[in-house]
Amino acid sequence: MLELTSFIIAQNNGESDGDFQNNGIAHWLLGQQETGISMWQRGQKSKYSDVAGGIESLCLLYFASVVRKDESLKKTVEKGIRKLIKRKASVNWPAPLGRFLLNDIEDGELLSLCSSTPILKERQLCQACFVVAVRSLEHEKMADFVKHLGSSVTYGAYSSLENEFYLSRGLLDSIEGYLIQFPDSDKERAISHSPITIQRLDFC
């Protein structure tokens, strides 16, 4: 994915923020966090973005700010989200993802705002579960973080059209790699009750 998205960005001068999102995810999962963040930031300047004006890239940057405990980045992202949701396009998906991260709505309302139309529903549920996972991580609720990441990759083939699907899958693989050292009977305890922090996982 890294080589492909790098080629696409070079060929079209980075017209789509989705290409930067995918490229950043590939870098992130390879342990290149700074480059991943840089790609997501560059995506904000793309000619084409989601219908809410670029909420998806900001959600990825919010995730990065939580993992790295970067309050400066978080404040910048929150400012960007607030700016976007003031627009008329904020009634459109994926704006609710940003509203959730700003605590304007709860997770139940977020999920209820997902489309009822097949295909769209699966894609939006994938994205919604990802940001709910991010919020759980922010509150250091690791068991809930893993649970919601797992949910985000369970909505069928169409959910794999969303960038969040691949980030969630990669994070789950890292977590499973960490937990392999524990017997099955201790895995839940290792996530929920031991002094595990996100810094000890491979994706950090």
Q: Features of this protein?
A:
204 residues, single chain, 2 domains, 11 helices
Distance between the termini: 20 Å
The coarse silhouette is: globular
Give me the strand/helix succession. HHHHHHHHHHH
Secondary structure class reads: mainly alpha
Query: What is the mean predicted local confidence, pLDDT?
Result: 87
Q: Count of helices?
A: 11
Number of strands: 0
Helix coverage percent of residues? 55-70%
Low-confidence parts:
194-200
Query: Compute the gyration radius: what is it?
Result: 16 Å
Largest sheet: none
Number of domains: 2
β-sheet strand percentage: under 5%
Describe the protein's architecture and organization:
- There is one protein chain.
- 65% of the residues lie in helices and 0% in strands.
- It has eleven helices and no strands.
- The protein is globular.
Brief characterization of the structure:
The protein is mainly α. It contains eleven helices and no strands.
Helix and strand arrangement:
Blueprint: H1 2-12, H2 17-29, H3 33-43, H4 55-67, H5 71-85, H6 95-101, H7 107-112, H8 120-138, H9 142-152, H10 163-179, H11 184-192
Helix pairs in contact: 1-2, 2-3, 2-10, 3-4, 4-5, 4-6, 4-8, 5-6, 8-9, 9-10
